[in-house]
Amino acid sequence: MSSKELRPINIDEPRWDQNTYIGRAKFYFATVNPRNIFYSSKSLDEAKNVIDTYRKTRELPAGVSVEQLYRLKDIYDSAFHPETGQKITPIGRMSAQVPMNMLITGCMMTFYRTNPAVVFWQWVNQSFNAVVNYSNRSGAANVTQTQLGVAYACATTGAVVTALGTKSLIQGRSLLARFVPFFGVVAANCVNIPDHEISRIARRDLRVYREQYSFGEV
Known about the structure:
This protein is mainly alpha-helical and 218 residues long. 60% of the residues lie in helices and 4% in strands. The protein has helices spanning 21-32, 41-57, 66-79, 97-110, 115-135, 145-169, 174-177, 180-202; strands spanning 207-210, 213-217. The protein has a two-stranded antiparallel ribbon. β1 and β2 form a beta hairpin. The longest helix is centred in the C-terminal third of the chain and has 25 residues, at 145-169. The radius of gyration is 21 Å and the shape is elongated. The relative contact order is 0.09. Residues 1-5 have low confidence and may be disordered.
């Protein structure tokens, strides 16, 4: 059967049933699959070209099967912003979350005995979070460089101060000392997330939806 005889596929709809847990798990795993970060920029651009072409023509390109089309869509979704269409920096992609967090968390839990090590790895962690938050921000969010800088500085300061303070309080207790990175990250998130979102809430930029209907604005 030729590609023209095939029923058009809506590749912007998940191929798995999103009303089931398994369907949702398969959908998100396909996007956050760590293997996706190893595709070259050329491969990502080729995937984008195929997807863009199919959206316009609704016809499978020569030599591309339905399964291959879906796989190219997974690769495309993993690397390009869903609203702006811009290519996301590799460490800011969702497919980089598992390996990057494993690396950073492992280092924070290993190098916690000296103050310079605590400061360095808390800074690395918050820098990584800042890249992820910026890369995956809403396309409609007009976040200024000042807002980003304030959020980053507050989160990093909160993490470092809390981690060092906790470290000094539990000095000599080797078991409790392993929780120093945890308390630092908790403190940073308590500052970072509200600081990133408060401006959107204040500008009433946050839309709430119920199914396909707009439910209102916050």
